[in-house]
């Protein structure tokens, strides 16, 4: 059974309430203090464990917004850092924080990029991510990742994706999930590098890979819309659905340009003004929302002030997802159930 799903076009970008829920990431980690939540959240969790958790564990789930680098086990990150003789102090401090600002979150992703620089590691983390989602009874996942070049180890964007596929193939016999891939354009990239990602997606699709679409993500404080727009328009011309991270920070040019492009999905939309909200609501573009992520990165001041409140009477239903290491899907599920 898939809960509260209404498919409007295809299995890729449905208008759907996708309530992915699971045990907390803490339950999968061996590092004490990895996720600390306040007293109210602890009480909510205790209530949930007796009332909803068995159902949450058993429920088949769709995961429509899983970043490969955002889903790595914290224990694996620390192990990789120690293998490289890196000073783990900064990494441990960021991972253990109750809340991380958005700049700190992207600093963490920067550290992850340093640690995930060879084919062996890419294959390993892909396998582990799929295993973890399978353990949470996820039956369908769109895994997004930005293909990377690393000439020091002979890595190209294609060989990066081939390493991802090896990880998927290893996990497949024991993790029966329908996995599709979304190739991400990183906001740090040039126009030509972004075009390379779309061209690679075209090649892989032609070879039979299950490519779900093209994403735009990365540090929202970096890059200009005019840099990525040509690649996104090219992707659309090639028939790829678009999923764009939008409004993670206040950037009217980006936000309004994305709304005008009318992608198949938008992510976050935390920092829209009233006019932009009206445009979004009128457009009926589905939005991917993560309550705990928005709170943990301080994108919203409180759950009561979350922009989800703008959408209570909105027909294109909210899509739910987990977006970062150490966050609790189950708290999101609790909040929605209790609303």
Automatic annotation (TrEMBL):
Q: Which SUPFAM superfamilies match?
A: Metallo-dependent hydrolases
List this protein's GO terms for biological process.
nucleotide metabolic process
Q: Residues of the signal sequence?
A: 1-18
Name the chemical reaction catalysed here. N(6)-methyl-AMP + H2O + H(+) = IMP + methylamine
Q: Where exactly are the transmembrane stretches of this chain?
A: 318-337
Keywords attached to this entry: Hydrolase, Membrane, Metal-binding, Nucleotide metabolism, Signal, Transmembrane, Transmembrane helix, Zinc
The record ties this protein, via InterPro entries, to: A_deaminase_dom, Ado/ade_deaminase, Metal_Hydrolase
Q: So which cofactors does this thing need?
A: Zn(2+)
Q: Name one GO molecular function term.
A: deaminase activity
Q: Which Pfam families match?
A: A_deaminase
Please give the family membership noted in the entry: Belongs to the metallo-dependent hydrolases superfamily. Adenosine and AMP deaminases family.
Q: What is this protein called?
A: Adenosine deaminase domain-containing protein
